[in-house]
Structures are given as C-alpha cells and as structure tokens.
Design brief:
The structure is a single chain. This protein is mainly α and 176 residues long. The protein is built from 6 helices and 2 strands, in the order H-H-H-E-E-H-H-H. A two-stranded antiparallel sheet has the order 1-2. The longest helix has 32 residues. The chain is extended and about 55 Å long. The chain starts with 8 loop residues before the first helix and ends with a helix.
Length: 176
C-alpha cells in the first residue's frame, strides 16, 4: 500500500508478477530440493547451498534485503497509522510529509516513552536475534492491525453483521 505513493499500481503489479513471484518460487523450490537431498541442512537452508567464496556476497545481499524490508515495514506502519486516524480508530496527531508530491513519504512524532519501550524490547533479546525479532514483531503487528481494520471496514462501512465480518476475517487471523 505504501509503495503505491512512490511507484503506482501498474509497476508494482508487473514487478510482483514477473520478478518477485518467479524468484520466490525458484528460491523455495531450491531450498526444498536441498533439504530433500541433504536433511542436515535444516539448520540453515538459506546459506547451506552457497559455496565458500559466495558466503560474503550472500551476507551482503541479505543485509541489503533486511534494510529494504525494514524500510517497507516502517512505510507500511505510517500508512496504517494514517488510515487508522482517517477511520477514527486512533486519536489525531501530527503527521509531517517529507515530500510535497508523494503523500506516502511521511513521518510522525513518536513519544519518548514509545522509543524507550522499543529499545527495551530490543534489548531483551540477544544481539544476533534482534533483527529477526524486530521484523517478526513488525510484520505480525502489521498483519494484526490490518485484520482488525478490515473487520471494522467490513462491519461499519460495508454494513455487514459483526458475525459475517468476523467469519470473513477469521482465516486471515489464524494465518498470522
């Protein structure tokens, strides 16, 4: 959703259909074939198939992917926050747009207490697990909020009964 403000609908659809989907399918099939051929690689199937000299470039690529993913999560959080405010699910607060031409490029002021809570949650996890922990919490939180907002929209905007709205959203909640 947030990337729509940067690129538009058509480039995102094209990239997903012709680049992301085939890449992910090949990656998962390759990892599955590796695990079938050598079950001991279950400990680290991502890097187990990389030859010795290829490990460093793969770590660099994984780091770049993590940075891009974290930016996507942050942008998604801003979009969810803006939408929640517009739906009346959150109190209004200041959102500053850093670009006049792209509304998706925005920032909002976080309370000092919220920043300290995030640092405390990150500090409770060992250093090597922090990146994965943070991304996991961010993605899960985004999916939960999206499911809740979907329920509210189906119930209040589309005027469905709460039971029908819950029945439609329930499968998404169990996949989280």
């Amino acid at each position: 959703m947030a990337d729509l403000g940067h690129f538009g609908k058509r480039p995102i659809q094209t990239a997903w259909l012709f680049i992301v989907l085939p890449s992910l399918a090949l990656n998962y099939m390759g990892q599955g074939a590796l695990l079938i051929a050598d079950p001991k690689t279950i400990e680290n199937p991502v890097f187990s198939d990389v030859p010795g000299l290829g490990a460093d470039p793969m770590v660099g690529l994984a780091t770049a992917a993590a940075v891009i993913a974290s930016q996507a999560v942050i942008t998604g959080a801003y979009s969810l926050t803006r939408q929640a405010i517009q739906l009346g699910l959150m109190p209004r607060f200041e959102i500053r747009h850093t670009s006049e031409s792209h509304s998706a490029r925005s920032t909002f002021r976080a309370s000092t207490a919220a920043v300290h809570r995030c640092h405390a949650a990150g500090g409770a996890v060992p250093l090597f697990e922090r990146a994965g922990f943070g991304l996991c919490i961010s993605v899960t939180g985004t999916m939960v909020v999206t499911a809740m907002m979907g329920f509210v929209v189906i119930w209040r905007v589309w005027k469905w009964s709460p039971i029908a709205a819950a029945a439609l959203i329930a499968p998404f909640c169990f996949s989280i």
